Amino acid sequence: MKKRLIAAASLMLAAMVSQITAAYVWARPADISAVSAILIEADTGAVIYEKNADAQRAMASTTKIMTAILTIEAGDLDSEFTVDSYAIMVEGTSMGLREGDRVSRRDLLYGILLPSGNDAANAAAVSVGGSIGGFVELMNEKAQQLSLSSTHFVTPSGLDADGHYTTARDLAALTAYAMENETFREIVCCSSAEVEYGNPPYMRTLYNSNKMLTRYEGAIGVKTGFTDNARRCLVSAAERDGVTLIAVTLNAGDDWNDHTKMLDYGFSQVHSYPLELSCGERVAVAGTGQSVAVYAEQDTVSLMAGQRERLIRKVYLPRFIYGSVRRGEQLGRMEFSIDGRVVKTCPLYAESSVTVADEQLSLWQRILAAVGIYI
């Protein structure tokens, strides 16, 4: 009898703990200290939580997300150059550049994204844009390309300036774009890095100011920021079980705990599901009487409750291919959308090869094959 009572009590206790845990995990984030905040799923852009997400605010060094991605996209990351003496004469955080130092854009990226060097941001700006003003123009052009309609840049570093602002929503969208870049992802997840610069260059270690990398399980970036006007700003990203979340807080009193609450909530709400990628359609190869099957590589999509039932799949393939087809060549795509918004695109590849001789095609078909047009 005593053993049965103990067992029953243990079951009741386990049930209570389970209920308490479930209530905690599924509870919407409360007491978020930030004036503005947002949490999104990175792949689909779905908003999981928001607070004053469209209010324009100063962004401090989270600005450097844009500075870094433009530097990466400019290319030529490993060629060394001498830093602009005027550009590195800037207040605030620094990677320690001095007049006459030789450095590469790649090492500047570590200086921009780990210790949040204002000198590194300015040096990269001059290298890429020809001048700080020229680079700022590139920043605003990129913002327009990415439809960041509530964002405007004045400095590459994020130091306070009139007209320098963003919103939590825009900053999350910018970060989702940046995190698609492999070089950017590799850098922002580093707690520290060995880089080489100076006159002559020598090795030294830079440390990341983003404490989320060591405080939160699954954290993979992204950027801290602080100025007297902006106060504490933070963008973080974390990945668990195939789900990637991005959290943004602007003007926060307790940003580390804000992000922990938001990310915990997000991972309780979003789950990764395998996509149905089988495709029975075939594409005809003109002039041969043959056709090729297509396939897609295995992939997943991260969805919140209720979204899976609304997921619509569409296949886009040409009717004919003119010219030879190589196995693995992309012939089309499969799109998955929710409520009219595309949330995932998967390429469709040729499952086999077909060789077509020129004499098998008409003159018009040869022209189409030469320019790679499918119909």
Can you walk me through this structure?
The structure is a single chain. The protein is α+β, with helices and mostly antiparallel strands. It has 2 domains: 32-271, DD-peptidase/beta-lactamase superfamily (Beta-lactamase, 3-Layer(aba) Sandwich), CATH 3.40.710.10; 282-370, Sandwich (Peptidoglycan synthesis regulatory factor (PBP3), Domain 2). Helices cover 31% and strands 29% of the residues. Strands 14-16-17-12-11-15 form a 6-stranded mixed β-sheet, with no helix packed on it. Helix 2 (64-74) packs antiparallel against helix 3 (105-113) and helix 2 packs parallel to helix 4. The N and C termini lie far apart (78 Å).
Features:
375 residues; alpha+beta; Beta-lactamase; Peptidoglycan synthesis regulatory factor (PBP3), Domain 2; 2 domains; six-stranded mixed β-sheet; five-stranded antiparallel β-sheet; 10 helices; disordered N terminus
Q: Overall mean pLDDT score?
A: 89
Instruction: Give the name of the CATH architecture of the largest domain.
Output: 3-Layer(aba) Sandwich
The number of helical elements comes to 10
How much is the radius of gyration in Å?
Answer: 26 Å
Query: What share of residues are in beta strands?
Result: 25-35%
Q: N- to C-terminal separation?
A: 78 Å
